Amino acid sequence: ESDRIVNYVLHIAILITLYIILGQSLNLLVGFTGLLSLAHAAFFGLGAYVSTLLMIRADWPFLAATGGGCLVAMTLSLVVAVPSLRLRGDFFVLATLGFQMIIFSVFNNWTEVTRGPYGIAGIPKPKVFGLTAHTLPQFVILACLIVILVLVVHWRLTSTPYGRTLKAIRDQETAARALGKNVLWFKTSVFMIAGGVAAIAGALYAGYVTYIDPTSFTLDESIFILTIVIVGGAGNLRGPVIGAFVLVLLPEALRFLHVPDTVAPNLRQIIYGILLITMMRFRPSGLAGQYAFD
Hints:
Layout: H1 2-30, H2 40-57, H3 62-84, H4 90-109, H5 111-114, E1 120-121, E2 127-128, E3 131-132, H6 136-158, H7 161-171, H8 173-178, H9 183-209, E4 211-212, H10 219-232, H11 238-256, H12 264-282
Antiparallel strand pairs: 1-4, 2-3
Helix pairs in contact: 1-6, 1-9, 1-10, 1-11, 2-3, 2-4, 2-9, 3-9, 7-9, 10-11, 10-12, 11-12
């Protein structure tokens, strides 16, 4: 019984680390640049599928396959960003929504490569520097190291003139343009970085569950990642960390309330919706954010 409890806690810890990475990457867009994207699950899925295919079919090691997933995600984000970032407000949101639906359709229908709704099983566990994360404790250590790396990189990125320019674009794009900043280049580059970091989470997720299918990378998942940023708070590093803890742990409380399995998923969505509406109404900057996205 004690082993089951420990494994359960470690499983939750791994989920939190995954969503911290996803939340931090989306926070670069939402919190630091003021861009609302609904395509983050697409980049998450690209990292999972590309890294999986490279490991299974090309026998690439985990780090190289993860790099390949990042490269594909960043390349596609560039293809999307160049036309989409010329749009503003709701039009940009609709463009990212369209990309999300396209990528999901590719995952679901390109059966020769992705196996469609049947998914891909037998994904090898991550092996880094000769060490394989076979057990849950080993995987927690690997996931935490990646989270720390992502946090350090994001901190360095956002504390430089590059990060300050992103904030200037967020707060007053016209003024940033008047100061001679290439706004389209900054938006495009941060969109690519965010997509690449989300792909890292995808590779880590695939290595953890050892099975992926399109249902893990839907629009609902993109909205959930956005909810993490909004509830936790945008515009700083601690907001998405707090959001990931709250939104991963909150539905787990339903297990202790003995809610039937047939009811729990719908109740979970209702709780997310109520929480999102409440935060937007009474605390738009989130629990620990510095920027209220509207």
